[in-house]
Design brief:
- The protein has 360 residues and is an alpha/beta fold.
- It is built from twelve helices and eleven strands.
- It folds into two domains: 2-172, Rossmann fold (3-Layer(aba) Sandwich), CATH 3.40.50.1970; 175-357, Dehydroquinate synthase-like, alpha domain.
- The strands form three sheets. Strands 1-2-9-6-5-3-4 form a seven-stranded mixed beta sheet, with helices on both faces. Strands 7-8 form a two-stranded antiparallel sheet.
- It is globular and about 60 Å long.
């Protein structure tokens, strides 16, 4: 097992990464206020891993309740969130009860938001079961639900007490979901870790083949990058926004197509190609740089072209982005491969041209 720490002072928490961790209740017990947990999962992950986690906790003397949600981004809304509150209230869960999110990014986001709201805050543990959640969404305390006008527009910053990433859960992950997670892994190399990007270029096929050693290294390196950024800028006032490379374009794709039509990582990959193309048009990247990024995404079996929603539709959806400030769209772009910046002065015509260039 590898352990990292998200350094947030008295709210610091560990990230445990390894195999066969779901059955190790002793990793969770130090982070429980009382021997009482409510597990939030979904109808895909639950049948695979809920019984094992419950048995481990119950054998350690912990009382467990469970909430099973429908799977998918299309259910990341108020109605589904309220199902969590229904069970927490029906089971008489207290403020000291720990909510455990067992699942991918949707479960983690919704579980975290519910924990932030229920009785004005209950302890929260992340047990991510997808690659995307293990390397990105489970770390850093971003929680949210979607709105028809924009993705993740309603939420809170609410840090977990622990992140437990069991690599064994990736064995049951569909290939498409694994690829979606690789989009976020590649992101870290593009924005700040050139050495890691080189390692990815040399080892990508090992990751696609689910080599355990390669996965453990990629998850640890990704989490280390994110933990450093979160510790420096918890509430995204500056550097943390760099983690959103490709996300402004990508969220427009997800919202425009309808939540769940494309996976988040797929939309991020296509969105990153739009950001790379815009960076090229601003004179920061070469055509060779853009091709290098596209090749890496293609090897990860990710899309490098966005859907043809139309420029006006893209721009309309992007106007709802959380990085819009004083009415000005601020984008995460690449000054070089391995160095991202937040840029608010890209000419609208160039933004439009970059979208057109990367859509099919």
């Amino acid at each position: 097992m590898r352990t990292l720490t998200v350094a947030l002072g008295d709210r610091a928490y560990p990230i445990h990464i390894g195999a066969d961790l779901l059955g190790r209740a002793e990793l969770l017990l130090p982070h429980l206020k009382t021997p009482r947990v409510a597990i939030v999962t979904n109808d895909v992950v639950g049948p695979l891993y809920l019984d094992r986690l419950c048995a481990s906790l119950e054998q350690a003397g912990v009382r467990v309740s469970a909430v099973t949600l429908p799977d998918g981004e299309a259910h990341k809304d108020w109605e589904t969130l309220n199902r969590i509150f229904d069970v927490l209230l029906a089971e008489r869960c207290e403020r000291s009860t720990t909510l455990v999110a067992l699942g991918g990014g949707v479960v983690g986001d919704m579980g975290g938001f519910a924990a932030a709201c229920y009785q004005r805050g209950m302890p929260f543990i992340q047990i991510p079961t997808t690659l995307l959640a293990q390397v990105d969404s489970s770390v850093g305390g971003k929680t949210a639900i979607n709105h028809p006008l924009g993705k993740n527009m309603i939420g809170a910053f609410y840090q977990p007490k622990l992140v437990l990433a069991d690599i064994d859960t990736l064995a049951t992950l569909p290939a498409r979901e694994l690829s979606a997670g690789l989009a976020e892994v590649i992101k870290y190399g593009l924005i700040r870790d050139l050495d890691f990007l080189g390692w990815l270029e040399a080892n990508l096929e090992r990751l696609v083949a689910r080599d355990p050693e390669a996965l453990a290294h990629a998850i640890e390196r990704s989490c280390r990058n994110k933990a450093e950024i979160v510790a420096a800028d918890e509430t995204e006032q500056g550097e943390r926004a760099l983690l959103n490379l490709g996300h402004t374009f990508g969220h427009a794709i997800e919202t425009g197509l309808g939540y769940g039509e494309w996976l988040h990582g797929e939309a991020v990959a296509a969105g990153t190609m739009m950001a790379a193309e815009l960076s090229r048009r601003l004179g920061w990247l070469t055509e060779g740089d853009v091709a290098r990024i596209a090749t890496l995404f293609e090897r990860a079996q990710l899309p490098v072209w966005g859907p043809a929603l139309g420029v006006e539709r893209y721009l309309e959806l992007m106007a709802h982005d959380k990085k819009v400030e004083a009415g000005r769209l601020r984008l995460v772009l690449l000054q070089a491969v391995g160095r991202a910046v937040i840029h608010g002065d890209a000419p609208p015509a160039e933004i439009a041209a970059a979208i057109v260039a990367r859509c099919r």
